[in-house]
Amino acid sequence: MCHVALLSVLVIVGAPDFIHAQNGPRLEIDRALFMVATKGPDGKWSVRETDRVPLRPRDACYGWRLHFSKNTGDEVSWRSEFALPGGPGKEPALLVTNKREKPQGGWIGGTWCVTKGDPVGEHVVKVYVHDSLARAFPFTVMAAGDLGAPEPASGAEVPVDPLGVLGDFSTQQASLDDELAATYPKPPNGLDVDTTNSAVLLIDFDLKGPLRQSRVKGAALVTDSNGLIRAAPIKDDLVMFHALEPGTYSLRFIRVDIYMGGDLQPRETIALQKPPSIEINVTVARGGIHYVGTVVLKGKVGLVGLKAPEFQLTYDAPRELAAWSAFRKKYSDSPWTVLADRRILALRSH
């Protein structure tokens, strides 16, 4: 069991705080939470409210939460400023996150996980809502041996994490599957035998930096006529979309399982949104096969978790050849292999 001191639930007592948005709704903050999740010897995660975070790489995560009591689903603009202490040869740093989103059940929040090399000492996260300071969350990252014995529980009920980020990570993949299935439909199972009325599209992914230990679990495309659809890899980081109607499609996000160190199971499963400033589009024709290229992603997993990834689209003919060869091997009995063979022959001739 991880020795983390327990604190009482951080429910705001007395008059609630109000945040006034310019030309927007009046937001009332009635609850503020700071929680720490730790993984036990049995591999299960537990969540407590505390201001002490154990320096246990891959086995400890933490986050803040704010709840708006009268939010009606309107978007909220917020900014977090994360002050990191300096270390030997390092200056103190300020990490800033800006987001605009609709609160989930009235909640907004941020979450990070501890990794090797993170500094111990005093930290503080300041959260601004519509440019007004909403809360400051001071906490201490401590070596496990400095935490001491756990304090007795206060008896207050710790609420279930409202955003589903902290808690039992073993349930995260199933939950995300359910959410994606409900929100973003998949293409039909199996290839359409009619090669004249639909299209097949392949996208390669290449994960760089700390993300190189991660695995692509799927991706999603968006088009004005068909909404958003998603698909899973057919091999490694090669994703196939099929049964596509003619039109122009744009990559929206990719889904990855994040591994750290010698992890045998993913630490978490997340969807990485493509920045709106990057265009990764492809126009598909009826009865055609298409290859987008290689989407290169770079990200950083550190004290503040996974930062916004960098997207880049590249093309490499040998990778396309390998992609269509993998497609042909998997669907050797499909009439689409005739088209794949033509493309393979064209690539080899060059």
How would you spell out the order of helices and strands? EEEEEEEEEEHEEEEEEEEEEEEHH
Radius of gyration: 23 Å
CATH class of the largest domain: Mainly Beta
Helical segment count: 3
The residue fraction in helices comes out at 10-25%
How far from one another are the termini?
A: 61 Å
Sheet with the most strands, sense and barrel status: 5 strands, antiparallel
Mean pLDDT: 75
Q: What is the number of beta strands?
A: 22
CATH topology of the largest domain, which one? Immunoglobulin-like
Number of domains: 2
Structural class from helices and strands?
mainly beta
Portion in beta strands: 35-45%
**Name of the CATH superfamily of the largest domain:** Immunoglobulins
CATH architecture of the largest domain: Sandwich
Unreliable spans: 1-16, 149-173, 301-306
What sort of overall outline do the alpha carbons produce when their principal axes are compared? elongated
Quick overview of this protein structure:
The chain has 350 residues and is mainly beta. It has helices at residues 172-183, 317-330, 336-349; strands at residues 17-20, 26-39, 45-49, 52-54, 60-68, 76-84, 93-101, 107-113, 121-129, 132-142, 199-208, 215-223, 227-231, 233-235, 238-244, 247-258, 268-273, 281-284, 289-298, 301-302, 305-306, 310-314. It is elongated, with a radius of gyration of 23 Å.
Description:
Residues 1-16, 149-173 and 301-306 have low confidence and may be disordered. Strand 6 (76-84) and strand 7 form a beta hairpin. The chain is elongated. The protein folds into two domains: 17-167, Immunoglobulin-like, CATH 2.60.40; 175-349, Immunoglobulin-like (Sandwich). The chain is 11% helix and 44% strand. The strands form five sheets. Strands 1, 2, 3, 5 and 8 form a five-stranded antiparallel sheet that branches. It is built from three helices and 22 strands. The chain has helices at 172-183, 317-330, 336-349, and strands at residues 17-20, 26-39, 45-49, 52-54, 60-68, 76-84, 93-101, 107-113, 121-129, 132-142, 199-208, 215-223, 227-231, 233-235, 238-244, 247-258, 268-273, 281-284, 289-298, 301-302, 305-306, 310-314. With 350 residues, it is mainly β.
